[in-house]
Amino acid sequence: MKLTGSQIVCEVLLDHGVDTVFGYPGGAALNIYDELYRYQDRITHVISAHEQGATHAADGYARATGKVGVVFSTSGPGATNLVTGIATAYMDSIPMVCICSNVNSELIGRDAFQEIYITGITIPITKQTYYVNHIEDLEPALRDAFKVAASGRRGPVLIDITKDVSVAMAEFTNKAPLPLDPIPEIPQDTLQEAAKLINNARKPLLYVGGGLIASSASEELEALIDKADIPMVHTLMAAGAVSCDHDLNLGLVGMHGTVASNRAVDQADLVISLGARYSDRVALNPEKWARKATIVQVDIDRSEMNKNVYVDVECTADIKDFLTQILPLVNEAKHDEWHERTVGWTTKHRLAQGVPGYMSPQEILETVSDAVGEDAIFATDVGQHQMWSAQYLKHRKAHKFLTSGGLGTMGFGYGAAIGAKMGFPDTTVVHITGDGSFHMNMNEACTAVSYKLPIITVLMDNQVLGMVYQWQTAFYGGRYSNTCLERKTDFVKVAEGFGCKGYRAETIEELKAALAEAVKSDVPVWIQCVISREEKVLPMIPGGKTVDDMIVE
Amino acid sequence: MKKEELKRHIIVILALNQVGALARIISVFGRRGFNIETITASPSNYPGLTRITIIITATDSAMDQVLAQVEKVELVKKVFTPGENTLYRELLLLKINAKGEDRERAMSVINVYRGRVVDLTSESMVIEVTGSPQKIGGFIDIMNEFDVVEICRTGATGIEVPGRTFDII
């Protein structure tokens, strides 16, 4: 059967089970969009306010569903607007296929209107890019793109299709997706060695990262924790790996991690990392981090081994596969003293209470958690509210906390929430943001309204760029350069202007009342929560320091 | 972490010969902060694969890291560091201004290095020398006594003796 390039794009999407895509049309993409019009009964295209929002939506969709996110754009500015979204996905290993259009082949390299070398621009932030200027290359590129995005350590890929290719004809047959690259075999001696270390350890600790979420290995992790009585700490990317109600889940580790988690790392005699990458926000001082421990690193990406912290045992493996294979080799154990000490740390060091006269971030987030239940999906922006969300939301399940961990992209949250809601229309989706982040991409409210996505935005408004303000307070002598925004935005009015509902809450009672309305709403809701600018994210270990330098109040 | 010494490393990469492939591989070095000293690229005996030889100066552990990063690039089919038993060669073209006695002196050096004069005018001569990077370096040192106008060298390429066979899909 002979099809046009644009039809081939749609058919390959269908071959991969894609029914939802995000994007924004334009001149070079006209043919592809013309075909998306014909396929609209099988492929829902979500039009965003800005291409960046579309990439974050595709990313959020992928994070929540575990599927590959797909985003379309036109040439030139359409393509460059994807860049922050692609980089966000790349840093957090989120599978995404970006399909850009470019000008006609004969105009390439002539600085034509809206021409950009997007496959060059995105080299460092993609697993692979494909420049397609011959119709016969199109189908193989599309199929390979889906394979590469979802294989091994996942990540974004980009295909750039010239406009002439989108109308050219080629022979096409529907096929099953290409098989993913096989997961690495785990050498028996590595497994035996790791099991022996676990069985002999007196103070073992599991350090869990986003790789565990990507591998959907929560059950296997919990089985290991329970069988061998091993406490765990998690990175920002692994919130919800195991329920926060589990007493051996010591919570977030690193710069703003719990006292218990950071102490446990410092005192452990064995640390087993599962899909975590020892970033500077966790191993703040790589030479002193887990200084008493033998370290076993398990990761699907061999290049993560010894990258930031030197480890004793390397194991290149899929996390679920590793946990499944090691569990029978691990002895049932009780580490009573270690158990009591680590769990004991979680009950002490209650954090200082909030600023009088204001709701505290902890109260707000616990109230939100309770109002929406354990199945709700949370998407955050970046800054203080993000850290508080990691600390205080009641994370009980994996794939429910969508946050830009690696790149730290302000403006990520609303798009991500839209993507998650498209993936799970019947699940409550909550977007937690700050007044700084929300101003970056609040334009996507129009998208949520158009598609009738009743996302609940909880806006923690302190009138400052809180995280930078906090650092200026602590380390820059209170010289608040460009962080005291004092903006006059009336969020309730803006919400209404977009077609959302807006509420303002200054007390927990007002917040509860607004949430009660929000969970019933069929349009997006914004709840502006007024908080004090003097609220800090604590505890805190300054960059390059250790648990001994932890600031708790 | 103990301070590690900087060493010269040679990396051989076999990669798919596609638009942008070289740029993507080079980008890994730039991204991780490595300066490439020399690079050569040419078609290999495997159809569709380019053989790239890169020399960098790095610590052993940094080298391990960059190898792992390069290995991860989708277009890369094989990465290795050649063993001790490897022959390296590079090509030098060197132009000097020389007349009369200078020219005769130059010729005697060129002969010792088994070089060839590939262009000759009344004022200048262009000399071609092939050999190991050390030999090329030594030749340039000596020729610096003359009025050297231009130097270009290709950078090293190398082959193991006996050759290695690759398991390439």
Topology:
The complex is a heterodimer of chains A (553) and B (169).
Chain A: E1 2-4, H1 5-15, E2 20-23, H2 30-38, E3 44-47, H3 51-65, E4 69-73, H4 77-80, H5 83-91, E5 96-102, H6 118-121, E6 128-132, H7 135-150, E7 156-162, H8 163-167, E8 169-171, H9 188-200, E9 204-208, H10 210-214, H11 218-228, E10 232-234, E11 249-252, H12 259-267, E12 270-274, E13 294-299, E14 313-316, H13 319-326, H14 336-347, H15 361-372, E15 377-380, H16 384-392, E16 401-402, H17 412-423, E17 429-434, H18 435-441, H19 445-450, E18 456-461, H20 466-475, H21 491-498, E19 501-505, H22 508-518, E20 525-530
Parallel strand pairs in A: 2-3, 2-4, 4-5, 5-7, 6-7, 9-10, 9-12, 10-11, 12-13, 13-14, 15-16, 15-17, 17-18, 18-20, 19-20
Antiparallel strand pairs in A: 1-8
Helix pairs in contact in A: 1-2, 1-7, 3-5, 3-17, 12-14, 15-16, 15-22
Chain B: E1 7-16, H1 21-31, E2 36-43, E3 49-58, H2 60-72, E4 76-80, E5 86-97, H3 100-112, E6 116-120, E7 124-131, H4 133-143, E8 147-153, E9 157-160
Termini Cα gap of chain A = 69 Å
CATH topology of the largest domain in chain B: Alpha-Beta Plaits
Report strand order across the widest sheet of chain A: 3-2-4-5-7-6
Largest sheet: number of strands, sense, barrel closure of chain A: 6 strands, parallel
**Beta-strand content of chain A:** 15-25%
Which protein chains are joined by the largest interface, and how many residues does each one contribute? A-B, 19 and 16 residues
CATH class of the largest domain in chain B: Alpha Beta
Global Rg of chain B: 19 Å
| Strand fraction of chain B | 35-45%
Query: What's the CATH architecture name of the largest domain in chain A?
Result: 3-Layer(aba) Sandwich
Uncertain ranges of chain B: none
CATH class of the largest domain in chain A: Alpha Beta
What is the percent of helical residues of chain A? 25-40%
Shape of chain B: elongated
Count of domains of chain B: 2
Portion in helices of chain B = 25-40%
Number of helices of chain B: 4
Secondary structure category of chain B: alpha+beta
